[in-house]
Amino acid sequence: MESDKTPQVRAMDIFYHYAGGIRRHLWLFSLVILGALGIQAADLISPLYLRNLFDLLAVPDRTSTDFRQLIGLVIAIALASLGGWFARRVQVFSIMHFESGVMADLYRSSFDYLIGHSYHFFTSRFSGTLTRKVSKFAGSFESIMDSIMLQFFPTAVFALGAIIVLFLRNHTLGIALGIWVAGFVAFQIFVARLRQPLRVARAEADSRMVGTLSDAISNQNTIALFSGAAHENKIFGSVVNAWRKATMRSWNADEYIWSAQGLLMVGINIGLLYGAVVFWERGLVTIGDFVLIQSYLLGLFSLLTGMNYNIRRFYDAYADAVEMVGVLKTAHDVRDRRGAKPLVVAERGIILRDVTFSFYDDHPVLDHFNLTVKGGEKLALVGPSGAGKSTVTKLLLRLYDVSGGAILIDGQDVRMVTQDSLRDAIAFVPQEPILFHRTIMENIRYGRRGAKDAEVFEAARQAHCHEFIASLPDSYGTLVGERGIKLSGGERQRVAVARAILKNAPILVLDEATSSLDSESEALIQDALQTLMRGKTVIVIAHRLSTIMKMDRIVVIEGGAIVAEGTHRDLLKQGGLYQKLWSIQAGGFLDGGERGGKS
Known about the structure:
Layout: H1 11-24, H2 26-57, H3 64-114, H4 119-123, H5 127-169, H6 171-218, H7 220-225, H8 229-281, H9 287-329, E1 350-360, E2 363-373, E3 378-382, H10 389-396, E4 404-409, E5 412-413, H11 419-424, E6 426-429, H12 440-445, H13 453-462, H14 466-470, H15 489-503, E7 507-511, H16 519-533, E8 537-541, E9 553-558, E10 561-566, H17 568-574, H18 576-598
Parallel strand pairs: 3-8, 3-9, 6-7, 7-8
Antiparallel strand pairs: 1-2, 1-4, 4-5, 9-10
């Protein structure tokens, strides 16, 4: 069985998944970097020309030569600004194409891996939460890349450039700015690590809130029927309160950090201005140097002002990515073996040999279970709830893998063949078929996606659903709603049967396909199933024993073991559990009605 525990995720795990997408769009990534370098180069060069401009303006006796120099400096500033504008356009257009391309790759790869998880994986998790994790993972790349390429990298380039220029003008001022920048970055990293658990807690609280909301919405009918609105409001309210507390702790930490950053910025501004005044008085700096210092500080502060927000955005995105990468690091419990070959079905025989399986280690559902189904045989599995009937079919379809023993189809272990070829060989009709929120045509054609329209229509006729489909305003183009909710239970079941007829697989599994239907729908589906079962090996699970009286063999299961088998008449003669179940269904309700009438 697959563990429900999410593996530990490291930063390298996240960037490993990002790296694949980045490599596929490397030339765009290179343009993003070049654009960022161009922008910062322009922002560093312009103040140098501006410094010379103000120094020239400060000269008491100006000449025509000075004027021409001033015009030249204005032109230089204009060219630098235009160069920065062009570099920004290159960066913005490149990063849009780059991020959208990588995000599309992440969506596809996440979906591909997620959908490959086992049946148990999905039954143990909220579908809404998984959906949100996929979406947040792709979105996290955008946020992280924006933070790095539009904030962290430009800030680092500009800060390094400003330090070098100031150092060349005045060693003391340059060293002072360098020490301050190093301290500021160290402070940011320190507080960011302290704050990370708060961000993770907030992301987890957000996922719990979405999962609870999704669970309630998908069970709205149950909530209404059991007057559970107040109860669900209480549950959701407690989850929202937990989210609010986690969010407030995260936001408060941000504000404390920003307050400290503001003080650091005030300190360096005053410190550099004081130092510049001292050096000006000694004739070591010029008026233009004041302009240069202020230009660099204003540019640096502008970048650093967004630092706190972007660090918060970065770590929020990181926390979002952690959730999905945890799913991507969770190994597929049921997967194709290396060198697995397609299943080849000829005789259609099925053997369960000494099969052992348990959902929990201390509670085996099947223990050394043996069953042989001959090719073309129509076999029914009956027994009380929890006996292990549905487990047999789930193991046959490899929704789970056996803990011990083997399941063979025509002598081939189902674990040694590809999952797609195995499930292509089996048509499965469940008790409650789930349909896509697509057209009826698309839902039936899912049985054989290359089928022609005429083949779909014929399958629908054989399943006795063509009539009700044709009566709908959009006929086969009718959208059935989420999980097929717009159709009745009988209509959904007939669509599922039509899908199985179209598939025309050599092995057919029916899991209580008529147990929840009205008599008219059951009669139509029973007739359709007779058509569906022709020439196939059939395994039927049924609580309603009247539906399996004509099966070739009936196997009675209790407590994960076979307790009796034979035809309907044979089993009635043998007595035991089957006769008891038959008596309850054939006469128990009538007796109950008579007793009720006499009371």
